[in-house]
Amino acid sequence: MRDPHNTRPRLIVASNNPHKVREFAAILGKRFEIVSMRDAGMDVDIEENGSTFEENALIKAQYVMDASGCAAIADDSGLEVDALGGAPGIYSARYCGRHGDDEANNDRLLHNLLGVPAPRTARYVAAIALVRPGRMPVVRRGVCEGEILTERRGNGGFGYDPLFLCETGETFAEISPQVKNAISHRRRGIEAVLAALEEEGQA
């Protein structure tokens, strides 16, 4: 049940990934009442059949808005490695052949980069899609440049974070959640969406 004293607009995060929901809440929690799909009564896996990060983010957000009648936000994010022609890209979460196995995905990435000299340039990409009843969708991209190390460093984060060396000189698994939320691709994508709302006069 909603708090009657809470005047923030409700925004459903179209994800079952608790890490992502926490990141959205940390970045947007002062502006919106952030609600997970499960908290909104939706426990489904949305098929992501787009060919770009932007298409997949929009598919997820649109599904949740259509099902709930509430504004929804989604991201589709992943890692692009230059030496691998942009792979794993939209297949980042299932690079090893099954979904969400971070260790196996990292192992495959290291194997495919054997013999590739440093710097093994790469970037985290996040496409953020915001959909609202009666309004045009807002879709923006955030990017965080870095490189891929030859071995894991750090115990935090998730996904490819232990291998991704960011602008601080540390991996995403070594920096604090607060620092990561300040510089991450997801933060930059969300800020681009917020800037678009400011232009609308809706933020």
Characterise the protein shown here.
By secondary structure, the protein is of the alpha/beta class. The protein contains 5 helices and 6 strands. The protein has helices at residues 18-28, 53-68, 102-112, 177-183, 185-200, and strands at residues 10-13, 33-36, 72-81, 121-131, 138-148, 164-165. The protein has a 6-stranded mixed beta sheet with strand order 2-1-3-4-5-6. α1 links the parallel β1 (10-13) and β2. The longest helix has 16 residues, at 53-68. It starts with 9 loop residues before the first strand and ends with a helix.
Radius of gyration from the CA trace?
A: 17 Å
Number of helices: 5
Q: How much helix is in the residues?
A: 25-40%
Strand ordering within the main sheet? 2-1-3-4-5-6
Kindly report the oligomeric state of this protein: single chain
Number of strands: 6
**Helix/strand order, N-terminal first:** EHEHEHEEEHH
Poorly predicted regions are none
Q: What does the main sheet amount to?
A: 6 strands, mixed
* Structural class estimated from helices and strands: alpha/beta
Mean of the pLDDT scores?
92
Amino- and carboxy-terminal Cα gap: 25 Å
